[in-house]
Amino acid sequence: MFAVYAAEPNPESPLDSLRVGERPDPEVPDGWVTVDVRAGSLNMHDLWTLRGVGIKPDQFPMILGCDGAGVLEDGTEVVIHSVIGDTSFGDETFDPKRSLLTERYQGTFADKVVVPARNVLPKPASLSFGEAACMGTAWLTAYRMLFTRSGIRPGQTMLVQGASGGVSTALVTLGKAAGMRVWVTGRTEEKRALAMSLGADAAFETGARLPERVDAVFETVGKATWAHTMKSVKPGGAVVVSGSTSGPDPSADLQRLFFMQIRVVGSTMGNKEELADLLAFCDLKGLRPAIGAELPMTEAKDGFEQMLAGETAGKIVFTR
Length: 320
Ligand SMILES: NC(=O)c1ccc[n+]([C@@H]2O[C@H](COP(=O)([O-])OP(=O)(O)OC[C@H]3O[C@@H](n4cnc5c(N)ncnc54)[C@H](OP(=O)(O)O)[C@@H]3O)[C@@H](O)[C@H]2O)c1
Description:
- There is one protein chain.
- The protein is an alpha/beta fold.
- The chain folds into two domains: 2-134 and 289-319, Quinone Oxidoreductase, Chain A, domain 1 (Alpha-Beta Complex); 139-266, 3-Layer(aba) Sandwich (Rossmann fold).
- Helix content is 26%, strand content 28%.
- It is built from nine helices and 18 strands.
- It has helices at 44-51, 129-132, 135-149, 166-177, 189-197, 226-232, 254-259, 272-285, 300-308; strands at 2-6, 18-22, 32-42, 62-63, 67-72, 77-80, 83-84, 99-100, 112-116, 120-122, 157-161, 181-186, 202-205, 214-219, 233-241, 263-266, 291-296, 315-319.
- The strands form four sheets. Strands 3, 5, 6, 9, 10, 17 and 18 form a seven-stranded mixed β-sheet that branches.
- The longest helix is centred in the middle third of the chain and has 15 residues, at 135-149.
- The chain starts with a strand and ends with a strand.
- Bound molecules: NADP nicotinamide-adenine-dinucleotide phosphate.
- NADP nicotinamide-adenine-dinucleotide phosphate (NAP) binds next to helix 1, helix 3 and helix 4.
- Residues 43-45, 137-138, 141, 162-168, 186-187, 191, 206, 220-221, 224-225, 242-246, 268-269, 307, 310, 312 line the site of NADP nicotinamide-adenine-dinucleotide phosphate (NAP).
- This is NADPH:quinone reductase-like Zn-dependent oxidoreductase.
């Protein structure tokens, strides 16, 4: 079958490992289902996979794509939940052995993907396949950061570090719909304008001093914005972290952390119930993901190049 895959780990030059070609059809274990993929969306996770981060070398070649939407053999239209884990931990994201598609099992950038039967949810009719393909990773991560992990309430102020990325644009849209005052930092005028068009109340240059401290900061950038994040949060406020794109080892700023009684909270993906709630929220409120580029899967390399260069304007979607 047709697939977009990583041939081998390549930390220095990840796109040199990207292949667009043929892979064997998947075998379907008992209790798993086959999804005829209609669309997938690109996540930074796919670039980490090409670099060999979060995947063992013997797992290559690996079909990329942790997000997708498609059709089951009986015609049901579905959204894929990418977290494959044991729910006896109370939440599959807490299973220490849980994995995302593309870490142990093949991903969605292909004609077909196989997943456990519990890992598909009905696609709301209000979302296109391309829009639905944005929900399972970036949007689910944003949903959990905001509604499960942050403790922020409607009327309070949130700061999103990064304006144009998949998780950032989801945070802006969800936060605005839920009644928060949404502030954003972005690296260019164009990216800040995008955030404003999605409903942000104000957009600042990266690192700019804010008019006042905020109730919660949402971090996926890491090293490049961490010092600003720690200075921007109110005493007793929260910093919710789900990524570290620019580097993982910033100074912890421990004195500020304890003196200002800042809560630093990690967050990863979301469980199936959160994905169901996210889909319902989007359906009820008419929310749509910002999609900056929609390309056929055969042209996936262009999308990867855009993400690697930081040229995002919301999600990058691949259609079949
Ligand atoms: N833990 C999880 O479950 C989970 C799930 C999804 C994503 N993530 C992580 O979250 C991060 C973002 O993923 P994504 O898919 O949203 O990526 P993306 O679409 O490529 O977005 C990247 C974002 O990072 C910002 N950024 C990058 N480098 C920066 C720098 N040097 N200074 C300031 N801002 C910078 C960009 O801001 P501008 O708009 O200003 O360019 C943009 O908003 C990745 O590290 C990913 O691994 C984690």
